[in-house]
Amino acid sequence: MGSIAIVTDSTAYLPKEIIDEYGITVVPLSIVFGDNAYEEGSELSIGEFYKKLGSTDQLPTTSQPSIGKFIEVFSQLGESYGEIITIHLSSGMSGTYQTALTAGQEVPEVEVYGFDSEISCTPQGYYAVEAAKMAREGATVHEILKRLTEMKKSMRAYFMVDSLTHLQRGGRLNGAQALVGSLLKIKPILHIEEKTIAPFEKIRTEKKAINRILSLFEEDAGTGVPIRAAVIHANRLEKAEDVKKRLLNQYDNVTIDVGEFGPVIGTHLGEGSLGIAWYKE
Q: What are the CA-CA distances from residue 213 to residues 62, 197, 202, 247 (Å)?
């Protein structure tokens, strides 16, 4: 066990076995349906969420962990660790990262270092796992943060949503007005730009959108460098597995995971979304 604790939030959607294997502490965000709030992961599974989403007219809202929750988590970890690296979803999408930093200043007995993933879902999980592996091997905070910053340089993610309604209603899409005119006829490809979700290209059909994302992937994977990638889906496992198979058949320099857009991110993207994220290993 290293002397550095690794914390992330539930939007990394890390499988339980990974959380346990690497001893990562996960602070949950919440989803609010009407008057009921559910902690992501522990009180509402991904499957239950999409079932609920499909049967409600009212779009759920999301809420970040309270500062009190972070103070409690950091204080507890401070009893066993001297330092904490806390890794969160993009500060452009949520105040979680900022809240964690503020909480860190309230806990003098342990040194808290923040890392803004500037993304979410499986890529955020990749940062947390990499940090945990390095901490276990005895790396210093400085070495870990340097490596995460290095990973960030080649991290790319593109995703397609089934419809933009969720993003618009949730106020999460910048530049959306440009797409409004042809909202119903397109499968827009989105990416993360300056820490927020932004339109990348308008594409007419899902098939073309997926092919376009694969051609962006080819720009890096085609060079032969080792790539770690994730096909991420919002309740579309079969389609995600298809894409994964397609990539494995085409490249032998790529390690591929299948990840999920869980409740908090799924609230904003909507069911049926599909994306690929990757970085050069």
A: 28, 16, 12, 12
Cα(281)–Cα(74) distance, rounded to whole angstroms?
30
Residue 185 has a CB neighbour count (10 Å cut-off) of 9
The residues near 114 (Cβ < 8 Å, ≥ 6 apart) are 85, 86, 87, 88, 97, 100, 101, 104
Q: Which of 280, 229, 219 is nearest to 258 (CA)?
A: 229
CB 79 within 8 A of CB 88: no
Joined together, the tokens standing for residue 263 give 């409740």
Residue-wise burial string across 104-143, b where 16 or more C-beta atoms lie within 10 A, e elsewhere: beebeebbbbbbbbbbbbbbbbbbbbbbbbbbeeebebee
Low-confidence spans in the chain with pLDDT less than 50: 1, 178, 181-182
Cα 239 to chain centroid, rounded: 19
In this predicted structure, what is the pLDDT of residue 82? 94
C-alpha–C-alpha distance, residues 135 and 115, integer Å: 15
Under a CB-based contact definition with an 8 Å cutoff, are residues 196 and 90 in contact? Answer: yes
Distance between CA 209 and CA 150 in Å, rounded? Answer: 29
Q: What is the pLDDT of residue 166?
A: 63
Q: Is the pTM of this model over 0.85?
A: yes
Mapped to the 3 state alphabet, what secondary structure does 85-145 carry? EEEECCCCCCCHHHHHHHHHHCCCCCEEEEEECCCCHHHHHHHHHHHHHHHHCCCCHHHHH
